[in-house]
Amino acid sequence: MPLKGDGIRLPNRAANQSAKAVRIRTPAKINLILRVLDRRSDGYHNLWSLMQTVALEDELRVQVRSDSTELSLKCDEVSLPTDRRNLVWRAAALVLERAGLQIGLDIEIIKRIPLTAGLGGGSSDAAATIMALNHLLRLGWSGGEMAEVGAVLGSDVPFFFFAPSAIVRGRGEDVAAVRVTGVRWVVLVHPGFPIDTRWAYDRLAATREHVRPLSEQHRRLAGQASLAWQDVIPLMENDFEQPLVPVYDAIREMKARLLTKGAETALLSGSGATVFGIFCDEDSAFRAQASVEQVHGWRGYVGRAGTASLSCREESSDPLQVG
Ligand code: C5P
Questions:
Q1: Residue 172 alpha carbon, nearest atom of ligand 1
Q2: Are residues 173 and 46 in the same domain?
Q3: Which domain holds residue 275?
């Protein structure tokens, strides 16, 4: 599996000897560019995406249990299942299976990233679980090895091991870290309703006549180790906008409001429904957030673009205050 680059921050091994619990902050992602290419024989689509983290983060605490071999998952978001339907549960089970270990774990999640929103929150939490266990259990897996494990769980998971910015291809398993230079602020707008990813892919496939080939300009981006914001912004697009905007007026309305409030550009993230705007400065980003929050049901979030990545912090006391 071609996994290139390594944007990961691994903790100091020597300091790890007595770690029993780790906390890890898990950022959201946006797709600065998302092209959905041909459907594969496994039913998934090949993707071409420039992905980046935003500093809107969930938090996980992972602890090894000494009293049992059960996996216990708690989450402050009551609508999320805490059994094997949860991607964190599946990530933990997969790591233990690959490592050949039968141990118990306590995992706690504090959710801040909206659910089913095109922000990769579940994928980020799953990637964080793999990284936390790699650290706690001293598995010694590289970023590429962790990404390989994550690829089994979902298309967005491998990216987080190469964050904050990367070009992602194939079904999400072919990831190359890239630097995006310059400072930008992101305003995320969530309209208060989810869009189901599988449904969005099906609608995209059903409504387009053919797959538009990747442009030469996008291909050229992939060959560069460093990209400047002013070169990226004119190339930003998302293939999901065409099939989804006619169904959801809110997508067009969120984009329009962000542009009116000074965004350089505004785009749907992933398969939606979150829309984001890119801003040159923090003040105008916060003004735009205040403006979108005036609309009933909309939530706005502000964060620095492309700075957040997964990183573990050891701790031995105080569980997170979950539910
Ligand atoms: O990756 P995830 O499990 O969230 O994907 C949900 C659904 O979206 C898949 O079952 C598939 O129908 C569709 N999908 C796709 N191509 C991708 C990723 C997802 O067709 N690369």
A1: 21
A2: yes
A3: 179-304
